[in-house]
Structures are given as C-alpha cells and as structure tokens.
C-alpha cells in the first residue's frame, strides 16, 4: 500500500484555463519565434525570456499559493510542461528545472527555507537548481561530496557537474555525505563563499541553457541549511525525483505530439509519384505507430497524475512513465524523420531540433537502467498494479 500525503488539489477550472491559455498564447507568439536565434547563438536570451515567463506566471506553477505561486495540481501542470516541450528545448528545460525544484523545496524544505525562497521563485527573483551528479562518482547516492559538522555549521566539499540552470540559480539543493553511509541535502545560496560555477560544453539538444560544474570548496553553511534531518538525503532524493520523472515523461509527450502533427501535415503535402506520401500504406504505418505511442503516453501520465493528486506516492509508476516516455519519444522522432525524408535532417525543419531535444529525456532524472532498478525494486517488494483491474469493473 502506498503512503498518503497532502498534495495540491489544484485551482478552480476557470482560473486554470485562463492561466493555461495565457501561457500557450505566449509560448507560440513570443517564445517560439526565438528558436532560430537560440539555436544559432546556443544561448537563451535570459533578459528577454525570464520577464516573459514571469509575466505569464510560468515560474510559479507548482509553488503553493501561500507562497505566491499558482499551486497547480500535477494534472493541471502536465499539459503546460508538455506544451513547452513543443518549442525550442532550452526553454522547456529552464521552465522544467525551475518549477520542478521549487516544487521539491515546497515538499521537503522547512518553513524557514520555504518562506525565504519560494515567494521569489514564483516571480523569478529566485531559482532553485538540483546539485546531485558528480564527475568522479555514480548516480544517486554514490557521492564523493562530504558535509562535515563543525559546531553550528556544516562544511561542504565536493564537485558537481551537469547542473542545469547553474547560470541563473539563486540556490542549489546540494547532496553530500554526512557519514560514510548517510546522505544529507542542503540548501546553499549561490553567493556562499567557496561555491564557484564554471560552464561546461554546449549540449547536443535543448540548446542555450547552462549545465555547469559547481565546485564546493569548504563551503560553510549553518545547520539551518539542512533540508529535513541529517541523513534523510536519500529519501529527499527519491521524493524530488519521483514526480520530476513524470514531468520528463510529459515533456516526451509534448515533443512527440509536435513531431506527429508535423508528420501528418508533411504526409499530406509531400507528393511523390503523383500522390501525397500519406496515401502510402508504409507511411500510414509510421503515423499510426506514432499516434499509438502518443495515446499510450497520455494514458499513463493521466493515471500517474491522478494517483499523485490523490495523495499517493508513485515511485514505480513515475519510473515507468519516464521509461516509456523516452522510448516513445525516441520512436516517434525516429519515424518523424523518416516521414520527412531528407529535408527533416536539415536545420530548415523543426524535426531536426525535436529529434535532438528529445534525446535529453534519456538522461534527465536518471537513465533507463535507473528506472528499471526503481520499478523492478517495487515489483519485487510486492507492489501490485491492482488499479488496472479495478478500472475495468467500475460502472
Ligand atoms: C543536459 C543535462 C542536464 C542535467 N541536469 C542535471 C541537474 O540539474 N542536476 C543533476 O544533479 N544532474 C543533472 N544531469 C545529470 C544526469 O542526471 C546524469 O547525466 C544521468 O543521471 C546519468 O548519470 P551519469 O552522467 O553520471 O552517467 P553514468 O552514471 O556514468 O552512467 C553511464 C551509463 O552507465 C549506466 N550505469 C551507471 N551506473 C549504473 C548502475 N549502478 N547500474 C546499472 N547501470 C549503471 C547508466 O545507466 C548509463 O547508461 C544532467 C545531464 C544532462 C546531460
């Protein structure tokens, strides 16, 4: 049986639709036109983008209302992050990381940390980044960073890399070992002495955002910087990544939907041997397979959101969503490229960018092997998916 928690029930439908429509309108009229510039310069123009995101309310979507955010439920948030995944990928990454880790802090932070950071996160004055991955160690709890208690402080030493939004983050949730076996999480402001940030090389897709190297050289923070209790880092890690994996799956959905829409349009307009290619059975098969992936992904995302919003923990479902999502968007963008033929491989067409952007979904919030581990671990612990059978018996 999964634990029951208090999760946001969301906002009234009319208010939500007004917010969603405002964001969708800005995505297509103000942000999408920046695609060529971002791809050419490999840099998101933050001076233009951040004020737009703040104005339309895209930065406080998951910040609880008492801290000035919109307090959306997960079912309300997923279509919005999916829409961002249709346009230039760097924009989606900024919005995803900003919302996801403000949301994590709202769940795992103490009152003082939430009051200090979340109102600013809702307006874009603050931004929380997640500093877990290390160059010299493995994934998750395999860390070389240490936090040593010294009187009323902790002294953190270590090296993180691939930390998204490292150029704009005001705070980092840093994971470090407090004993050989225990991991703890700390909320570390960017300007803390000893914390330095260096850029890493540009990425294959989702261009224009920074995923930097964060060095912690004897960074001294007060004990109040601990997120939760000492030694609870693994628990926090799982908690933060769980729902974030669903957000990555929703990003896979958005990218897949856009690739499908473009492919349907191309299949109707591209004529070979005197007929639109969409009349050929082989091309129809591609389209039908793409739509099947989109349909299935929508279904599992709706189920995961429903469970989470009802207060359940969903580690297995979240990992399965993330896993299926990356496989689905992989297949869909492969087929989209085939439907488009050679022109889809050129920068003249958004398919080329969608294809590259989608490949980040393999890595964010853990690789496939980590998702196998989490999902299978739950199954071997006796977790049963009885829900599916219950649905078929409901009137
Ligand atoms: C653009 C970008 C943004 C990112 N943003 C962030 C961020 O904001 N914060 C952050 O903390 N991290 C971030 N990451 C890091 C990302 O989460 C990791 O790259 C990812 O989890 C894989 O870890 P790794 O790079 O250390 O790969 P490795 O751990 O070196 O894995 C290499 C391969 O080995 C497999 N493998 C490794 N260990 C095991 C094992 N024990 N069992 C089975 N298979 C294993 C992996 O699945 C993978 O296939 C980002 C990465 C990228 C590319």
UniProtKB/TrEMBL annotation:
The keyword Oxidoreductase applies. Residues 129-219 form the Acyl-CoA oxidase/dehydrogenase middle domain. Keywords: FAD, Flavoprotein, Oxidoreductase. The keyword Ribosomal protein does not apply. GO terms for molecular function: acyl-CoA dehydrogenase activity; flavin adenine dinucleotide binding. Its cofactor is FAD. Belongs to the acyl-CoA dehydrogenase family. Residues 231-379 form the Acyl-CoA dehydrogenase/oxidase C-terminal domain. Residues 15-124 form the Acyl-CoA dehydrogenase/oxidase N-terminal domain. This is Butyryl-CoA dehydrogenase. Coiled coil: none annotated. It comes from Rhodococcus wratislaviensis (Tsukamurella wratislaviensis).
